[in-house]
Amino acid sequence: MVFLMKIAIGSDHTGINYKCLIIDFLINQGCQIKDFGFSHYGKKVDYPDFVHPVAKFVEKGEADFGIIICGSGNGAAMTANKYQKIRAALVWKKEVAFLARRHNNANMISIPARFINKNKVLEIVEMFLKTDFEGGRHKIRIEKIPLNK
User: Fold this and answer.
1) 52 catalytic, yes or no?
2) What is the value of pTM for the model shown?
3) Would residue 70 show up in a list of annotated catalytic residues for this protein?
């Protein structure tokens, strides 16, 4: 399967190995990558410093999707979901990735580096990117997510 998309990606120190694995996979699938992630081994960093730029890039429409990685995936997802046009889903298996796209029209996934293995991470990314949004009743629900100001 070939994905002709632009993907923004970022990670903290716990996600660097997965970030590199995912980037290689996506480049081989024909994707353009914008890497906002941490790239130095051995130094601890704060995930928001890498999640904010990914979320801003996706929110502005400069990437089709975003992938963010931290230890539990929670902090990265919480940070990304502060942006009105972002729907970041915490994803730990491919079935959750499928539903995040199919029912929730997620435009970012947050991967918990400490809780999945490298054999599953590419399955998750592939499932997320190949799944289309179903629309219908799910579209109505998605339209209710942003806060009315």
Assistant:
1) no
2) 0.93
3) yes
